[in-house]
Each structure stands twice: as C-alpha cells, then as structure tokens.
Amino acid sequence: MNDQDTILSLSDVRYSWPGRASFGLHVPQLTLTPGETVLLLGESGSGKSTLLSLIYGTIVAQSGAVTVAGTDIAAVSPSQRDRHRAEKIGLIFQQFNLLPFASVRDNITLPLQFAPDRRRRVPAPGAEARRLCNALGLPPQVLDTRAGALSVGQQQRVAAARALIGTPPIIIADEPTSSLDAATQTAFLDVLFQQSQAHNTTVLMVSHDARLSPQFDRVLHMADVAQSVRGAP
Ligand SMILES: Nc1ncnc2c1ncn2[C@@H]1O[C@H](COP(=O)(O)OP(=O)(O)O)[C@@H](O)[C@H]1O
Ligand SMILES: [Mg+2]
Hints:
With 233 residues, the protein is of the alpha/beta class. It is built from 8 helices and 10 strands.
C-alpha cells in the first residue's frame, strides 16, 4: 500500500496514561484508506477513547508514529497540531463538548474559525448549519437556541453537525449514537455515509453496538487492533 492510499496510520504506537501504570495500549499497525468507513468495537475500558485521542492528537504516544493526512502529529509543534486537527478531523466526542451558552448555529460553525480550508468549502456557514440540522432531524428553530437548553439526543446531533461542516477528510466519532433513538440513529448514519461517499471522507466510529456492523466497510475489534499492556508499555 503506498502513501496515497493511506489517510490515517498508527505504527507500533505505545501509550500509557501518566501515573496510571495499570493501563497501557500498544497498537502494532492500523491503517485507514480515504473514503472507507470503519466501525471499531470493543468493551468498555479497552482503550477505544484513548485510541481516538491519540489520533485526534490531544494526547501524544510515548513511542511509535501516528500519521494523519500525511502529517506525523508528534513531529509538529502544538500549534501546528491544533491547526492540522481542525482542518483534517471532524470529531464527535462521547461527551459532545458543546459550548452550552452559545447558539446551536455558533456551535456548528465554530470549527470553521480554526480551519481556513474547511471555511473555504462553506460559502454560507449559516445556511450549511441549517442544512445539516435538517438532515439530522433537528428543527430550524434550534439554530437560535443555546446548545445547553437542548435534550441530550439533540446535543448529540449538534455535535455531529459540527464535525461534518466543511467536509474534513476524516471523521472520528466516539459512540455518537448512544443517546439517539432508532430513527434518529438511522438519520445520523445516513448523513455520515452520504458525506463519506460524496467527499471521500474516512469515517472511524467507535461503538459497542455490533448490530451496526453491516453498514460499515470494515469492522475492527479492539482486541485485534491493540494489546492492553499492564505496567509501562
Ligand atoms: N484522561 C484519563 N486519565 C487517566 N486514565 C484514563 C483517562 N482516560 C481513560 N483512562 C483510562 O484508560 C483506560 C481505557 O479507557 P478508555 O480509553 O476510556 O476506554 P474505552 O473508551 O474503550 O471505554 C481505562 O483504564 C481508563 O480508566
Ligand atoms: Mg470510551
């Protein structure tokens, strides 16, 4: 596989949380290609969120390489890493991380402020926020509502819209459907896969719901991707 076929790779990555010798992660090799949709399944505590944080670059591996869209994220400065992440990765956190006092519209369009390339792809951010809300089954009135006033399921969809806006080449999502009912979950996955198809977006989604498997190009099990290591890895 040559570099052009790889959008995301981890090689011989080792990470342990500081001061927590009881848990360490070792990922020998993980490679994702542009446009593929990957479901990562695994038990609670197996390190799925830690793995996504390594890819997102909010934590940096103690050894090994994490390469995202051609950049080894340990090799660049923290500010370059912030900019790179904002451009290349749409992230849906497990805890949403919305700004509770800002409007839904401002929450959704926020990433564009830190990502000029994404901003250029969205000539009319307000209209795009509205389109995404509509596609995700949120009524247009919510755009002017402060995010903290919404239900958990609505907030989850706002977080999804924020990740999708400006079509970053990679979407990583940490259990994004956990607060959604079946119909809303279907709408969310439809929007995600449509964007993936239309823009060759790579999707890496964490879940513990194996029933979602048939909808993805590839299913990975945490036990196969990473070895949990005790003590310093
Ligand atoms: N911010 C953190 N600081 C210290 N330890 C953490 C932190 N986040 C997760 N861990 C630990 O790392 C291990 C894996 O957790 P996590 O990556 O959240 O697993 P999963 O997402 O699969 O449930 C757990 O032992 C957890 O306690
Ligand atoms: Mg988790």
